[in-house]
Design brief:
This protein is an alpha/beta fold. The protein has two domains: about 15-250, TIM Barrel (Alpha-Beta Barrel); about 255-305, no CATH class. Helices cover about 45% and strands about 15% of the residues. It contains twelve helices and ten strands. It has an eight-stranded parallel β-barrel with strand order 1-2-3-4-5-6-7-8, surrounded by five helices. It has a two-stranded antiparallel sheet with strand order 9-10. Helix 2 runs parallel beside helix 3. The radius of gyration is 20 Å and the shape is globular. It binds coenzyme A and magnesium ion (MG). Magnesium ion binds near residues 45, 166 and 167.
């Protein structure tokens, strides 16, 4: 990966983010070979209460001892209402992660609390202020969804918003978070759209939730493609076998890149004629289409640099 968080002009590519239980050394080692852009060593739902304390130390040790080869090092901490969060940060900051995944965010106050705590830890361990990034799970509570715009804008550390349905489903008392055809019921569709809109408005990466049936490649590809078509820039994963599909889907295909380059060439000619809106392949094209083509070309270049 040629990109770095300390260079805002060269944002990190987050196509794939692999969750790994923080109390499982074998999986943490194994995750490094998966080809995931980001790794999320989990202290929350993948760790039973009896392992919470030892998992912190295992994650810190893994962060210090393993070779991540440029993959982003993220730790998912426990949510604030558990009382475990500050100790999660205290122990794992010693492992120098790139950032934290914050679950069950309810409001901008939750984000500000973590932001302030991290500023203190950064001072303590001698890291640049603001360099530890945040990936926020802001659709896991009803409050989080209703506050999502302010949540997204609460801290300059926030790099991405991820949406997820399962904890929301619990909070709502919903009997199921999928219809029988696999599609999302309205309220979950709303949560997903809110994530996409809030992330786009705040200039953050919108990230799609994991696909849990890790034996169903076709289902994963369908869901990832649909998310990419909407504007999501990456998707979480729970199994290494899901990473190649996700990495492929969230980089524009060769056909898309060729089409984008052709449109940009036509735009250059049109601008030279003094036309900002012009006819291309029988339809009108102007600034949004041109910007979209530029983004496709830039994402393809970032994808090539990462692989
Ligand atoms: N990260 C790293 N390695 C993983 C992995 C993961 N998320 N999931 C599976 N593997 C490894 C296994 O350890 C196994 O390694 P081995 O062949 O050297 O023994 C290999 O990949 C094949 O795994 P498989 O047998 O297919 O699955 P499993 O039964 O071992 O594990 C899960 C299935 C669901 C328990 C596992 O994928 C997992 O823990 N996923 C992440 C869960 C999580 O973090 N959830 C919270 C976020 S939603
Ligand atoms: Mg959860």
């Amino acid at each position: 990966m040629a990109t770095s968080d300390s260079n805002p002009g060269s944002p990190r590519l987050r196509r794939s983010l692999l969750f790994v239980p923080g109390d499982d050394r074998h999986k943490m080692e194994k995750s490094l070979r998966a080809g995931s852009d980001s790794l999320i060593f989990d202290l929350e739902d993948a760790v039973v209460p009896a392992h919470k304390v030892k998992a912190r130390e295992m994650v810190r040790d893994a962060l210090l001892s393993l070779d991540f080869k440029g993959a982003e090092k993220l730790v998912r901490i426990n949510p604030l209402e558990t009382g475990l969060t500050l100790d999660d940060l205290t122990v794992t900051m010693a492992g120098h992660p790139n950032g934290y995944v914050v679950p069950k965010v309810r409001s901008e106050d939750d984000v500000r609390f973590i932001d302030r705590a991290l500023a203190n830890f950064e001072a303590l361990v001698g890291r640049e202020q603001g360099s530890v990034r945040l990936v926020l799970l802001a659709t896991e509570t009803p409050e989080g969804i209703l506050n999502i715009r302010r949540v997204a804008q609460a801290s300059l550390r926030s790099a991405a918003l991820m949406w997820a349905s399962e904890d929301l489903s619990n909070a709502l008392g919903s009997r199921r978070s999928r219809k029988s055809d696999g599609s999302l019921p309205d309220v979950f569709q709303f949560a997903r759209s809110a994530c996409l809109l809030a992330a786009a408005a705040a200039g953050m990466d919108p990230l799609d939730m994991p696909y849990f049936d890790f034996h169903d490649d076709a289902g994963l590809e369908r869901e990832a493609q649909e998310a990419a078509d909407l504007g999501f820039t990456g998707k979480a994963a729970i199994h290494p076998a899901q990473i190649p599909t996700i990495n492929r889907v969230f980089v524009p295909s060769e056909d898309e890149v060729a089409e984008a380059n052709a449109l940009l060439a036509a735009a250059t000619e049109a601008f030279a004629r003094g036309q900002a809106a012009f006819v291309y392949k029988g339809a009108m094209v102007d600034a949004p289409h041109i910007n979209r083509a530029r983004k496709i070309v830039a994402r393809a270049a970032a994808g090539r640099a990462a692989s």
